[in-house]
């Protein structure tokens, strides 16, 4: 049987001679055939092939940490500066507020003091209208008018007050009238001024009058309330301070002074009026007030009370001793 063979048209180019002349290529190893997990990663340069795989992340973390530390320091510094600024602004605002309040309080004190003076002047004017020197003077009417005039002492600096009070004394009393060591209407008026300067909240109450039979003497029984202020201690009891001058030289007050400060005491007393029927005027007065008894009621010993009066400018009978600084 005849054999038929079929060949492709290009069989000559696929002959053994052609194929045998091709140099075979090596198969690539597996490490070059490993597929890339992330095709977006950039290829490493040959020069970086020696770098360890974890070096880059470690350096990045250190750099970020260092940058964060610097940023934190700057932020903390800014926060501290802001707090300091706010604190300083708050301090300045508070100081301004306190200054405004202080000025406001000073203005209020001045207004209150002015109103007090106006009230005193109005009271004095009312007193001058209500207290008239009796046309038909008697020892009873004079004594009653006397205590109405000085029921709050003489605490008004107005010249009108002094003028009216002096006129009353000159009209109802002899020019030579005496009250202990005091002589004359002006001396009596000055004693009232000194009494009102030494003590505050003065209130003299006339309890009752009693005529001594067979004589021209009228006895007035009184109750006098006064307050021991800081000024009282400084002016009347300066020896109770360690400097001996009422604290004007920076001394310290004794416990006795602290005990007396702001005490409101009530003194029982009497005033004797000696009347001259011929002239219709008072020729003599005897004023007594018991300052010792109310001080004995305060906590302390007799030695403490004795020390209070040791160099005081007032006696236990409430006789005043003028001080050179109070003469003006």
From TrEMBL:
Keywords: Coiled coil
CDD domains: bZIP (cd14686)
Annotated coiled-coil segments of the chain: 95-132
Biased composition (Low complexity): 39-49
Residues covered by region (Disordered): 25-57
Protein's UniProt name: BZIP transcription factor 1
């Amino acid at each position: 049987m005849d054999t038929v063979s079929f060949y492709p048209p290009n069989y000559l180019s696929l002959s053994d001679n052609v194929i045998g002349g091709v140099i075979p290529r090596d198969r690539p190893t597996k490490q070059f055939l490993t597929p890339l997990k992330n095709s977006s990663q950039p290829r490493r340069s040959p020069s970086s092939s020696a770098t360890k795989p974890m070096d880059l992340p470690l350096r990045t973390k250190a750099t970020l940490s260092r940058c964060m530390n610097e940023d934190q320091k700057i932020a903390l510094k800014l926060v501290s500066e802001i707090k300091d600024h706010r604190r300083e602004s708050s301090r300045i605002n508070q100081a301004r507020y306190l200054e405004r309040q202080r000025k406001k309080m000073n203005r209020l004190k001045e207004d209150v003091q002015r109103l007090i003076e106006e009230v005193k002047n109005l009271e004095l004017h009312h007193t001058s209208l209500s207290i008239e020197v009796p046309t038909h003077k008697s020892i009873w009417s004079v004594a009653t008018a006397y205590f109405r005039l000085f029921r709050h002492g003489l605490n008004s600096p107005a010249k009108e007050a002094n003028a009216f009070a002096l006129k009353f004394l000159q009209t109802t009393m002899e020019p030579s009238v005496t009250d202990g060591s005091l002589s004359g209407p002006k001396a009596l008026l000055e004693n009232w001024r000194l009494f009102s300067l030494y003590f505050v909240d003065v209130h003299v109450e006339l309890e009752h009058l009693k005529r001594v039979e067979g004589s021209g003497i009228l006895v007035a029984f009184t109750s006098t309330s006064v307050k021991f202020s800081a000024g009282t201690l400084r002016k009347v009891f300066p020896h109770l301070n360690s400097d001996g001058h009422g604290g004007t030289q920076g001394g310290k007050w004794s416990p006795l002074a602290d005990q007396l400060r702001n005490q409101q005491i009530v003194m029982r007393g009497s005033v004797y009026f000696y009347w001259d029927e011929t002239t219709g005027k008072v020729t003599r007065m005897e004023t007594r007030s018991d300052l010792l008894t109310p001080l004995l009621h305060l906590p302390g010993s007799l030695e403490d009370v004795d020390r209070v009066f040791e160099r005081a400018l007032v006696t236990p009978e409430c006789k005043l001793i003028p001080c050179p600084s109070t003469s003006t």
